[in-house]
């Protein structure tokens, strides 16, 4: 039974050091139970959006690639969203 708030309980949990402090619903073993649901919901919404629209590259845009451990874009990717005619 919970009797009182004791900040010491949040200083260290197992091998996790709570260096960022007490942040309810967002870090460690006490993270938000709706996090997985929100991620799945956003993925489904994106899939439904992409069924009706598509992304096309902007004419004349040349992406700048940066080589590292993986190849990434050095700048933002410019695309235009158009309604799929199908």
Q: In brief, what are we looking at here?
A:
With 86 residues, this protein is α+β, with helices and mostly antiparallel strands.
Features:
1 helix; elongated; alpha+beta; 86 residues
Descriptive report:
By secondary structure, the chain is α+β, with helices and mostly antiparallel strands. The protein is built from 1 helix and 6 strands. The protein has one helix at residues 35-52; strands spanning 12-13, 16-17, 53-57, 65-66, 72-73, 79-83. A two-stranded antiparallel sheet has the order 1-2. A two-stranded antiparallel ribbon has the order 3-6. The longest helix has 18 residues, at 35-52.
Q: Which outline best applies?
A: elongated
Rg (C-alpha, Å): 22 Å
Tally of DSSP helical segments: 1
Number of strands: 6
Pick out the low-confidence regions. Answer: none
Q: What is the typical, i.e. mean, pLDDT?
A: 78
Strand arrangement, largest sheet? 1-2
Oligomeric description of these chains: single chain
> Could you give the order of the helices and strands?
EEHEEEE
What is the strand and helix layout of this fold?
Elements: E1 12-13, E2 16-17, H1 35-52, E3 53-57, E4 65-66, E5 72-73, E6 79-83
Antiparallel strand pairs: 1-2, 3-6, 4-5
């Amino acid at each position: 039974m919970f009797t009182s708030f004791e900040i010491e309980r949040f200083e260290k949990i197992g091998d996790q050091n709570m260096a960022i402090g007490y942040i309810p619903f967002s870090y460690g073993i006490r993270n938000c139970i709706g996090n997985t649901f929100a991620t799945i919901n956003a993925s489904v919404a994106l899939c439904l959006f992409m069924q009706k629209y598509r992304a096309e590259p902007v004419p004349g845009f040349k992406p700048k690639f940066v080589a590292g451990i993986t190849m990434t874009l050095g700048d933002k990717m410019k695309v235009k969203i158009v309604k799929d005619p199908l």
